[in-house]
Design brief:
alpha+beta, Alpha-Beta Plaits, nine-stranded antiparallel sheet, 26 helices, transmembrane helix, monoatomic cation transmembrane transporter activity, RCK_C
């Protein structure tokens, strides 16, 4: 074995060891592997940073932005909300999510299906007080299994189809994958229903300082619009519609803002509802129940571009100008150009209108205004900003716009008109252009450590190919497979594709393995279809690492997973795919 091959294998082995050790963060391990490859000469200096221009980096970054915009719209949450509210047990919530993403992945690119449903999983986890890690990895694995069902589900299927066309003159059709893919998908769903217990269930994304504050008891007020579904209902019906997550503490009516008895009054158009609850629940209630947040028609919002409007949480200090005064008396908007959106006061339930409430030292308030003005005004008012936390109260929901953009991107990729990377990159740009996701929020939602890991590892994995390591593996496979029965040869090709995918990513694995499989089948006088199908299944089923497929990478940050976590659930699932997949392939595609 030449020295470059020895070095390439040694660096990969050391890298895997550091990943499994877990004492160094994954992006730092990837950086060290890249530096070692450059020093060893297995990666040329001029190619050291080529990985950062690879499609997978663009796909993952864009998918994170698109997913954030879809989550912000609340559409998926609304669609699954009714169902999830009736299903309380985690294992059945998991079944809903995994089944949905699996069969959606058969119709569209699996990365797009997963990006669409991640927000719903995060909402379910929060409502169930469960770690998102319980849902996200099984969903990623389900999306990989769903991608096996059709030609457009995942890139390996398309590449394998082209290889078959080059060999036989006939490509695989849209549903030629379905008999094998459906069998494996259903098997995988059943396994994940019970097998999720193999995962570490305490993994969580690193908490922010804002999340550590955990301020949930806010009061805000909103006006009932003419088209609101709340008109004619009472406070009890309102609580039912918001799943008891928001409480009406007062109803103010007419120009005099007279208080109406909550227990007996019916809500009318024009009423001002004083509500109390979690910021996310308040925001969802305002968006879904036909309400207009107080202050949204003021100049701080209407005369500033939506992307330049923001909200900030702050605590009122003892020396603040606000102490003992109300927002109305201080003329907070006309003097300072900011709107008071919400108030949280520990241990007290307020029933008067927000603008008339006398503020006290220690109150936590939410102010809205131009982002370049808020820090200055906070200092002038004597308020101390809290640690940054995502707050959507007072932001604009764009309804179906993000879903329409994502749907258009997936349709273009399904029809083969636009590559996946360009489609998702364009979708991310449109999300920001339309205001579905403000530019600042878009950058905040990108998982930069994961992109660093991907960009650094791509040239490291390619070194295995450029040094001839893959040819060495191919020769070993050929010499081993000739002594095996046909089913054993198919199994060997499937296992080899599974084993190589974490190092080369799925598309590169197919490009390397498919010609090897086809040539091997021809040499021993067998039809190539079963072997090509084994390559497609093996390359599409990377359940052992976060780097072989972008779906696994996408959930790593939100799920708080470590590198070694994937094998705990993925190893038995991989074994199950081999046990079920080989007979299915042999049955559907006789050799």
């Amino acid at each position: 074995m030449p020295l470059p091959q020895i070095l390439a294998f040694a660096i990969l082995a050391a890298m895997m060891g550091l990943f499994l050790w877990g004492r160094l963060r994954y992006d730092l391990v990837a950086i060290l592997a890249l530096l070692a490859s450059v020093v060893a000469g297995t990666v040329p200096v001029k190619d050291a940073f080529s990985g950062f221009s690879d499609d997978i980096v663009i796909i993952v970054a864009s998918a994170l932005v698109v997913s954030a915009a879809v989550e912000r719209s609340g559409i998926v949450e609304l669609l699954l909300g009714k169902l999830s509210s009736r299903v309380k047990r985690i294992r059945w919530q998991l079944m809903i999510l995994v089944t949905s993403v699996t069969f959606l992945s058969a119709l569209v690119k699996n990365i797009g299906a997963l990006a669409m449903l991640i927000p719903a999983a995060l909402k379910m986890a929060k409502k169930s007080d469960a770690s998102p890690s319980v849902f996200l990895m099984p969903m990623a694995f389900g999306s990989l299994l769903g991608g096996l069902i059709t030609l457009v589900g995942t890139s390996p299927n398309i590449i394998v189809s082209r290889v078959r066309e080059d060999i036989t003159g006939e490509p695989f059709g849209m549903f030629d994958y379905a008999p094998v893919g459906l069998g494996l998908a259903i098997t995988g769903i059943v396994f994940l229903r019970f097998g999720y217990r193999l995962m570490p269930r305490d993994r969580r994304a690193a908490p922010t300082m804002g999340e550590a504050l955990d301020i949930t008891d806010y009061m805000t007020e909103a006006e009932v619009r003419e088209d609101s579904p709340l008109v004619g209902l009472d406070a009890a019906a309102f609580r039912e519609r918001t799943e008891d997550s928001v409480e009406i503490s007062a109803i103010l009516r007419g120009t005099t803002q007279a208080k109406i008895a909550i227990d007996t009054a019916q809500i009318e158009a024009g009423d001002l509802l004083v509500m109390k609850g979690d910021p996310d629940a308040l925001e969802a209630a305002i968006a879904r129940q036909g309400l207009t947040l107080a202050g949204q028609d003021r100049a701080a919002v209407t005369q500033t571009r939506s992307g330049d409007i923001g909200v900030i949480e702050a605590v009122i200090s003892g020396e603040s100008l606000l102490v003992g005064r109300s927002a109305q008396r201080l003329r907070l908007h006309s003097r300072y150009g900011v709107n008071l959106l919400a108030l949280s006061r520990a241990g007290e339930r307020r029933i008067e209108g927000l603008s008339e409430t006398r503020l006290l030292a220690g109150d936590v308030i939410v102010l809205q205004g131009p982002l370049d003005l808020l820090p200055v005004q906070l200092r002038e008012l004597g308020c101390l900003p809290l640690a940054e936390r995502t707050m959507r109260l007072g932001s604009v929901r764009h309804g179906l716009t993000p879903v329409a953009i994502l749907g258009g991107a997936m349709a273009l990729t399904a029809m083969g008109l636009v590559p996946v990377a360009m489609a998702f990159f364009g979708a991310a740009a449109l999300m920001m252009l339309t205001g579905a996701l403000p530019l600042r929020d878009a950058y905040d939602h990108v998982e930069w450590p994961i992109l660093i890991m991907l960009g650094a590892l791509i040239p490291v994995s390619e070194a295995l190919q450029t040094t001839g390591g893959t040819d060495l593996i191919a020769g070993w496979l050929s010499s081993t497979a000739v002594v095996l029965p046909p089913w054993g040869a198919v199994a060997l090709i499937l296992v080899a594709a599974m084993a190589v995918t974490p190092f080369l990513n799925n598309a590169a694995t197919v490009l390397v393995m498919a010609p090897i499989a086809a040539t091997f089948a021809s040499d021993i006088g067998l039809r190539p279809e079963a072997f090509l199908m084994a390559v497609a299944v093996g390359a599409g089923c990377d359940f052992l690492s976060p780097i072989g497929h972008q779906c696994n990478t996408l959930v790593m940050g939100p799920g708080g997973y470590r590198f070694g976590d994937y094998a705990r659930l993925g190893a038995p699932l991989s074994l199950l795919v081999i046990i079920v997949g080989v007979p299915l392939i042999m049955l559907v595609w006789p050799v």
